[in-house]
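dumping this here so i dont lose it again. seq + smiles for H2B
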Amino acid sequence: MSETPDLAPVLAAGWSLSADQRAICKTYRFPDFVAAFGFMTRAALWAEKWNHHPDWRNSYGLVEVTLTSHDAGGLTARDLKLAQKMDALA
Ligand SMILES: C[C@H](O)[C@H](O)[C@H]1CNC2=NC(N)=NC(=O)C2=N1
């Protein structure tokens, strides 16, 4: 973790640390595809604005998100910031 972010707030919010500790993950569940994709669309606009993009998978109302800073090879404050934004948008 190059910028040694404080993970406590996002872990308390339901994110989990990957086994290699280089990413945080969370699964969101929405009532249907439109709600899930609406969330993804709102999150995508923030991701693009901040030039920090999620790795994610969607299946109907489910959105599995992994956040890591590929350029840093691990977690940075950018992941925490996007995680908190995604929670606010969900
Ligand atoms: C060229 C551009 O700045 C990079 O590809 C950005 C874009 N979004 C990114 N998102 C994430 N999560 N990690 C990165 O390293 C990253 N790099």
